[in-house]
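Review form for a predicted model. The reviewer records the input and the model, then writes brief findings.
Reviewer: anonymous (R2)
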Amino acid sequence: MNPSSPIAEPVEPSAPEALGPDAPSLRIVIIGAGFAGTTLARTLRRWRGPAIDLTLLSDESYTTFNPMLPEAVGASVFPEQVVVPVREMLRPAPGRRFVMGEVRSVDWSARTLRCHTLAGDRVLPWDHLVLAFGSAARLDLMPGMAEQALPLKTVGDAMHIRNTVLRRLARIELEPDPALRRELGHFIIIGGGFSGVEVAGELVDCLQSMRRYYPEVQAQELNVSLLHSGGRLLPELPAPLGEAAEQSLKSRGVDVLLKVRAQQVRIDGVDLDDGRSLAGRTVIATTGVRPQPLALQLGLPMTQGRIVTAADLSVPGYDGVWALGDCACVPNGRSGATAPPTAQFAIRQAQLLAENLSAAVAERPTQAFTHRSVGMMASMGHLKGVAQIGRLRLTGLPAWLIWRAYYLNQMPSTGRRMRVFFEWIWGMFAPTDITHLRFGRSPAQTPTPARARSAAS
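Model under review:
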């Protein structure tokens, strides 16, 4: 979401056209179509209370499976395999629909919001408003990061990084300067969490596979470096799995630098806090997230860049307003800590919120959010991964297979699961795809005098 006007402004009743039935029984509006928003919408299909008018609102027409973006970077999966159309997940029907648009303002007293759609501004009334619009990539951690580093938050980011890698290889073949060739072939990743480790593993594997198509690029001219300020990779996982990930990456040629921080990103490299500099023309940032602009403009209570919620996911002081997923700071009753911003917790929050909405409408007590993680996983390249499932720790191919199976299970339909499954099976044995996908219109052809004379004759 990128609202362009203050959120707290009142909505003029005579300005835009109102969406929806004239007198719906219960109007539920969900802002955001990520894991949290779409899971809630799908769960509400089983609503057993009074008739509802459910609207899912998002500025994108698809849901992105963000944990799979590193695989899209490394061409292990096609971009369409990491996104699912919202309409396919929601299955629009009477009383249930998807609106593609951006929220412009919210009037808390009138319980309406103004959104900009493909048909212009519209006013959307609500009885219950659910905020599930996620977070955005943070690129203000150091000088030069916003200008020079490549974020990985959307499928567009993934495809841009992939295209950049392909352009670097193509340019290396044409460059006579050995030093510049090494800079072009050096890919620096900042951040040793899940995304950083996964991107490093994917990149080193895809570079090795792609090089067969670029015979003038030498193996020693391609390098991947992973920078992490902590003492070990994957701090969210047990130490043995973080160490296994480090060994796996190092065995494939990744230069893993621990206990170092990037201080500045330049067009030709990165300056470190220990005085060293790394020369490289491609820097990928996987550290940190920031609130969406909408979260900052709503005027709701926030902490650590996330909307504060009560234990039952309601926003204190705002009747009928709820928040969940990455944009919400949700207390976990089981651990006493804040729930982490992961897909697993977002899905469980959405399932609970469906129950709490029903309870709130029926004036019954709502439930507090409690959830214990069933496991955490990371893919680290072709057929490689690490996983913690309960007390079971896995590495290599078994972890990778479980990781793929989990996300395959999240696909919204049997048909899509089968199609993606067979494409994944083929990808296990096929070489890396090196298609440089460019999305753009054909250039407009302005008639030249010669072309005009030819047409006239």
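Findings: The CA atoms of residues 314 and 322 lie 4 Å apart.
Further findings: The longest strand covers residues 96-107.
Recommendation: see findings above.
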